[in-house]
Amino acid sequence: MVLCGRALLRKYGNFIDNLRILVKGGTGGMGLPRLGGEGGRGGDVWVVAKHDVTMKHVKSKFPQKRFVGAVGVNSSVRALKGTPGADCVVDVPVGIAVTTDNGAKIGELDREGDKLQVARGGQGGGFRTDFLPAKGQRRVIRLDMKLIADVGLVGFPNAGKSSILSSVSHAKPQIADYPFTTVRPEVGKIMYPDYKQISVADLPGLIEGAHINRGMGHKFLKHVERTKQLLFVVDVSGFQLSFKTPFRTAFETVQLLMLELELYKDDLLDKPALLAVNKMDLPDAEDRFHELMQQLEHPADHLHTLPEELVPERQINFKHIVPISAATNQGMEELKGCIRSSLDEQAEREIQETAREKLQSLHTLSSHSVRYRQLLPPEHTVD
After folding, report:
1. Which of 162, 155, 156 is nearest to 176 (CA)?
2. CA 112, CA 89: separation in Å to the nearest integer?
3. Which residues span the domain enclosing 177?
4. Whole-number mean pLDDT of the chain?
5. How many angstroms separate the Cα of 266 from the Cα of each of 154, 221, 262, 316, 359?
6. In what order do the strands lie in the sheet with 115-119?
7. Integer Cα distance of 288 and 123 in angstroms
8. How many separate domains does the chain show?
9. What confidence tier does 186 reach under pLDDT thresholds 50, 70, 90?
10. Cα(316)–Cα(381) distance, integer angstroms
11. How many CB atoms neighbour CB 33 within 10 A?
12. Which of 27, 150, 339, 340 is the most exposed place for a label (fewest CB within 10 A)?
């Protein structure tokens, strides 16, 4: 944690995803007792989502300043109604969750132009307040960036997520053969021949216990919340973080990933999900993949072999399971096609659901109108 003026920054390298800042509405203007004049209202503080802004921009633009609305103008003989103070507008990245310092949710900024009032200006002095102005609202808030992407890569360290992102997009994440290569989110774009673009986020690798904030824990899981779909990535040969931790087969790895998401926030398992089984270029990979497919087809027959604390309550029904090798590009085109297909299906379902909701709303409105006409006396009925 780094203290900078009034802002606390949590960052990985140069990546900042959390700001704790002080916001204060402007004080109202003084009233004018002898003429009944009313002072201007103090300015509010707003946060506004902008695509071309990062948390780093927010920090550098206001390194040691509070975010304060302007003071309202006093009432005077020339202007009995004082002019309101100017609002303080803070540009922030799209994809920000705003909370109070104790964690209460104020709102979210998911689209360009979304805005939230985070501190109210004080009322100007007037007759009801003996012409004395009120101070503006003052509080500490948190700006928490939760990455927005179409697809989020979910996997344990060294599963090959960074290699996959590099292979399917123009992103160039750091890649190495040791855990925790990714220490900050990376986002790449898959470009399709019809110019469709799909954003894919490579997120820091999970470890067992991430849901209780072990490792990068919540820093990872909060970003998963803001992706449309999940792409699980597992090593077909299994996974072992270090010689001090147990070895996990590919099937056990899938179960542990589900468990970490479930324990952090159960509704993450409701997201559409795909599974990429990586490193198919290794010896015996085909046999291991065939075994994994059998286990995933009938998970109940195999879950009893796992310790009870490692078994998730719910199973994800993967929309696509694709064997790949990020090292040799085996299966990468198929994976890109499956990602596109899954997102297109989801978009179509959302369109249909929106249409059904609108139709239901129209039916409800129509039935209320008919009921109202039936209650009218005959002489008030309009043909």
Report:
1. 162
2. 14
3. 149-345
4. 83
5. 15, 12, 4, 12, 31
6. 88-93, 45-50, 115-119
7. 70
8. 2
9. confident
10. 56
11. 14
12. 340
Residue 373 lies in a domain: no
3-state class of 284 per DSSP? Answer: coil
Name the helix (H) or strand (E) containing 48: strand 45-50
CATH number for the domain spanning 190: value is: 3.40.50.300
Whether residue 88 is found in the same domain as residue 212: no
Is 56 contained in some domain?
yes
Structure tokens at 145: 């960036």
Looking at the domain assignment, is residue 76 inside a domain?
A: yes
Q: Report CA 80 to chain centroid distance, whole Å.
A: 47
Per-residue pLDDT tens digits for 57-98:
888 888 767 899 999 999 999 999 999 999 999 999 888 899
Tokens 């990546």: give the residue: 15
- Does 207 have pLDDT greater than 60? no
Q: Which two tokens stand for residue 208?
A: 């067992």
User: What is the rounded distance in angstroms from the CA atom of residue 132 to the CA atom of residue 125?
Assistant: 4
d(CA 355, CA 42): 43
